[in-house]
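Notes to self after the call with IL:
- keep both proteins in one doc
- input above output, always
- annotate only the second one for now

Protein 1:
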Amino acid sequence: MDVIRALLMPSDDMLSTVIWDLRLRRVLAGIIIGAILGGAGTAIQACMRNPLASPFTFGLSFAASLGVAIALLALHGGGIQRYQITIYNPFVVSMFAFIFSLIQVALVLTLAYKAGLSAGSLVLSAIATSFAYQAILYLIQYFYLNEIMVSTVIFWTFGDLGRISWLELNIVSVVAFTIVIPYFTLRSLDYDLILSGDELAKSSGVSPQRLRLETIIVAALATALATSFVGVIGFVCLAAPHVARLIVGSGHRYLIPASMLFGSILLTSSDTIGRAIIAPTVIPVGIMTSLIGAPLLVYLLLGARGRGYRD
């Protein structure tokens, strides 16, 4: 009853502060960011016809990370105080994350076009450029002389739902519910067609090249928002689609919303466990998603051997 009263009638007491400023904001962030990452992972896997494809393996997270690092270091867009990161201008940081994600999209598509624009060439191009982004990011940290700012970038890469503000959460929510989630949902039948082959998709009125380009751009936007506001969270976009596929099947009409749901559950659960397992020390959610998601995915895949699951 105290929690319900604090939610309905917020005040300045300690309980309302804990619920609104420490708990509710990070839970909502986990739900929304988990949903857009899960949906983005499913959409990219369908476009690439590759179960290992995701915004993380596609290099979007690394590109966004480099953009955020440049915004934090070169533009002094953030600082660290008592192990908490403060983003001075979230719009600049998000803009740089999205710009570098688009640069990654342009590089990958250009390289893939030279190789024939096949699904395999897209993934290989992404892997190649991802190593370059990581090297540049490490090089910037190595030569940058301000240890405090370098610590800001390193601490930010861990991934933490607690650092997002209400303003940033509102930005993510608007983009998620007006662009990302509607697009992936409306394109669900097209993803089924492209999985059957480019020729079948073309005969049904769907352009595979345009669908891949649009999907990657929307996924880049989702990844850039998540990366710029909460840090690097990579395993959700890979694990959630596989978990959902084992439960609801491969039809994207149900797979897309199921992946969003399991992405939200995985990210929120990982954050809760990370806060409680060795309290009061908080394990960053970017670490917990890998520690929880990897064994879960392996367990489900081993249990699905007799059910004909081949991805």
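Protein 2 (the one to annotate):
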Amino acid sequence: MTDSVRIERDDGVGRLVFDRPEANNAMDTATAEALRDGATELASDDDVRCLVLTGVGGVFNTGADLTTLEGDGRDESALRSLAETLHAFVETLARAPKPVVCGVNGVVAGGGIGTALVGDIVIMSTSARLQFAYPGIGLSADGGSSYFLPRLIGLRETQRIALRDEPVGAAEADELGLVTEAVPDSEFEERLTEEAETLAAGPTRAYAETRELLRTSFEHGLGEQLEREADRIADLTETDDYAEGYAAFFGDERATFTGE
């Protein structure tokens, strides 16, 4: 793990933290590889029941570190490699068998957009902003932004954000449905921690099945999706969390889920 990415574990919550403030949390090859490897490690750790992605220094992530590039055709292989590594990271988070919370604590731009929007819950500080940024350097989208944006807010709004390249503040992001909620800077870390701890204490396997059903729902017709729902809900009756939740429903105590 490189110094530009930190892994933290605390009571079922695994954090990946962008920690390259001197470069505005931009991604060079080492950072992208650390993100990919860190996400793989946390996603496969059974003791981690919720993943959190956030940044330091008032910046979330500003995409590729342009200082490592040349600005011409010599960058083809470098950008392809960087994009493929970043995409492996984003896909690992999208397919993780546990909830993902993204804490957008500051500027998010370029390739950082997909990493912010992959979360099931996205909490944005009121001073943060999103900038598509690609038109300014003559490049197209990567990092999953062309996938997540239309699905979250529709094609027309995505076209406006992508082609006009106008910054989107926290209030607008909240109104559009880009993020789950916008919170004051002074409350951001407390709210992010609260959300992650709540999800980490939930029925992890049920969350995993729901995440997968939602993520792939656009790929199936209604009949097939209904069949997949029936299979998943029936399979979950074998879990300890179902037994716990069922008993709690008819009892006086709240369910205590173990993720099993």
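Annotation: The first strand starts at residue 5 and ends at 10. The domain at 5-200 is CATH 3.90.226.10 (2-enoyl-CoA Hydratase; Chain A, domain 1).
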